[in-house]
Amino acid sequence: xxxxxxFKTLLALVLMLCLVPGISLAKEDTLIPMxxxxxxxMDLSGIYVTTxxxxxxxxxxxxxxxxxxxxxTETKQLVHFExxxxxxxxxxMLDILRNGKHETIQADGSxxxxxxxxxxxxxxxxxxxxxxxxxxxxxxxxxxxxxxxxLQSAPSFEKGAIYLSEISQIKKSSPGIPGYKISxxxxxxxxxxxxxxxxxxxxxxxxxNSYNKVLAEPLEIMQPFELTIGPAEIYxxxxxxxxxxxxxxxxxxxxxxxxxLLTDQKLLSKTGGILQGMSGSPVIQNGKFVGxxxxxxxxxxxxxxxxxxxxxxxxxx
Length: 317
Description:
about 325 residues, mainly beta, Thrombin, subunit H, 2 domains, 15-stranded mixed β-sheet, 23 strands, elongated
């Protein structure tokens, strides 16, 4: 009887804890907010043609074509294509993928040797690392899809990686003219993580544990309904490789995104507003991790839009 009474008392206490406002027995989901500038490299699924180029009297390679073979030699990378070109021939046959369909076209031996500058097998860019999940060993960055500037589409890719980069110069934003970061990868031999997914919510992959920077403490994920109009801050990098905190205002909350206004005068004097390459910068409010900057308003560069980090995290697979 004594044991049963104690058990009932313990059970009642547990139930009381569950019912008291502000007390939860569940572990809150957390992520580490980052803000580092990153270099992005993706090896494409084949050799892409970047502009229309003539290869014979009546034949053209079209922008977006993928070259699969040259004279029967498989050409997954530019180096394969260049080796195949070394075999002199008055006429060469190209196997290509055009609009999802396989085609074979004839190429003049001399004209085909001039197309290399209009081909690419890699896309590169810069952005901002949003979060690292220490529990799953994954990361998220950008908050939007990588669109190849030449192909104007999200390219199919074989593999990719992100690298820590440092900013050497900044071209300031002004109304109607987006600014950008001029940066370079610090160490090409040390990648931070691979790229497994490139979707409308960002790029995602496995995080490499050898990163020598001391990571920030994990923060609780703020749910969209918790966000309020008012002050917040962002983590981002605008000089070297140092992540800094800057003040912003949350100005509008929508179902899938929210709007921000840069208010930090130090940041505005340095950048003129949001820059290309700041996509992915974490947004923090009241000590919670709420989202990531994704876009700027071109005519008002101090204003922009952000994606909820909960949305990013649930779409990283």
